[in-house]
Design a protein that fits this description.
Blueprint: H1 2-15, H2 25-33, H3 40-44, E1 61-62, E2 64-67, E3 70-71, E4 79-81, E5 84-88, E6 98-103, E7 108-113, E8 118-121, E9 127-129, E10 134-136, E11 142-144, E12 147-151, H4 152-158, E13 162-166, E14 171-175, E15 182-183, E16 190-193, E17 196-197, E18 200-208, E19 211-221, E20 229-233, E21 242-252, E22 255-263, E23 270-271, H5 276-283, E24 284-291, E25 294-301, E26 304-311, E27 327-337, E28 340-348, E29 354-365, E30 368-378
Parallel strand pairs: 2-14, 22-27
Antiparallel strand pairs: 1-4, 2-3, 4-5, 5-12, 6-7, 7-8, 8-9, 9-10, 11-12, 13-14, 15-16, 16-18, 17-18, 18-19, 20-21, 21-22, 22-23, 24-25, 25-26, 27-28, 28-29, 29-30
Amino acid sequence: MKLQAAVLILLASAAVLTLACPSGASAAQSAVAAQPEITSAELKRDKPKPEHTADSGSRREKVSIVWNGKTLQSGQTSHIRNGVTFAPISLFSKLRGISVHWMEEESLARLWVDRGGVFDFKPGADYAEDMDRRYPLGAAITVSNGEIMLPLRFIAEMAGADCYWDREEHLVRIVQTKTAIASVPGTKARLYPMAEQDGEYKGITLEWNGKLKSYPDWVNPSNMESPPRLEDRDIDFDGRREAVVALNAGSGTGVYLEEIHVVDSLTYREIPVEDALQAVRSRIQSSVERSGGKLHIRVTAGGSAMDQTLYRSGNDGPDSSQSKELSFGSVIRYEIRDGALIALLAGSYGISDFVGEAEVRYVKQDGKYTARSVSFLFYDE
């Protein structure tokens, strides 16, 4: 039935977000839990300068790689080109939280991030890409003696490691003491668990703009299917990016709930967000009428009414509910579209009998994100 297909598509879109949290996260958790909140100045103290940034043109400058104090060996030599350090694919097996493999049939290297995310690196391209976008690297990917060379910092930082350029020793130092459970590709915006207990991350630390800030009340399942999401976007059009964190508040058959947190880039305080479910319940009216094998649904949102009639057959199974209106609240997810924060809430007339989706579009007003508009759209039959 097309209705059921729509439900599967909806849940699959949410499931795209749920890949894996690293099994080695326990070491990271104890490391992060022991860290006090520190300032950006303290982060820079007594640390070598970041990975080489000087433009070295198109020439290749050989460089050594040291991971947690141990020099990494490979049949190919790592090098710096256009200010970007490239290392052979074989070296990345040392990093926790990721795996990289050469895909022979597709002629590209594919990176899997344990807590979620798949990125492709094609020889000759100066970008990495996932399903949604391309991420510039600053120099083209090459193959040296049959082994693809990959951008070290881009990959290492997604795993939760930091890269530093040691000018005196002419080498890049990789320091990985913890494993990220979420990150923004190409940046050092990352999330780390404070502690893990009873299958949950109890508290989460945000690394952003060179500062660590812990949020003890943030909770997310630690299983492989429910990683948190992190985005670094300007969603109030003030020229400054906010950290947008979506936590998994519950999932199961017919259920997928996200909890949204928005953090100010200057104060690191959370900006209140109006409850999406309350906004939908107060601004959407609906009715469900049953007549024989017919199901007539009317929804009014934003002053406009829309109707849909469903024809149920014996193959569809029994009507799972006698509700006289649509129910919202079992599927709530968030996205950023056209620079605005959006909440999407599936509407159903019974258990998992989803027929459409309410959209809540937010705008920042008086220091909080409020629901500017609430609309509804039926799924295709």
